[in-house]
Amino acid sequence: xxxxxxxxxxxxxxxxxxDIINAILKGEYTAGEYLPSLNExxxxxxxxxxxxxxxxxxxxxxxxxxxxxxxGYRIVPDVMAVLADNFRSSIINxxxxxxxxxxxxxxxxxxxxxxxxxxxxxxxxx
Length: 126
Description:
Elements: H1 4-25, H2 38-45, H3 49-61, E1 65-68, E2 72-75, H4 79-105, H5 109-124
Antiparallel strand pairs: 1-2
Helix pairs in contact: 1-3, 2-3
C-alpha cells in the first residue's frame, strides 16, 4: 500500500500534467509553444523540481511535449491529433473494461448499447 505522501506526490504531478492538457485544449497553450520553465511550474504549484519534472516527463511519454535540452519543453506541432489519439485509446480501454464487467453481470450487448445511448444523450445536454 502506498505511503500517503507518495499518493499526494503522484496526484500532484498528474494534476499538473492534466492542467497543462486542459490549457492546451482551451487554447491557452498552442502547438510549438514553449511551456513555463520547471522553476516557474515549481512556483506556480508550490512543488519541488522533481514533481514539476515528473509532470513534464508524463507529457513527454504521451508525446504531447518534447524536451529541448538547455531551452525547455515545447508542445509538439500536431498536439491536437496526439491528444485525440490519447483520448481515443483511453475511451477504448474504459469501454473494454465496461464490456468485461457487463458480461460478468450478464448484461447483453443490446442492453449495454441502450445504456450507452442513454448516457450519450444525457451528457449531450449537460
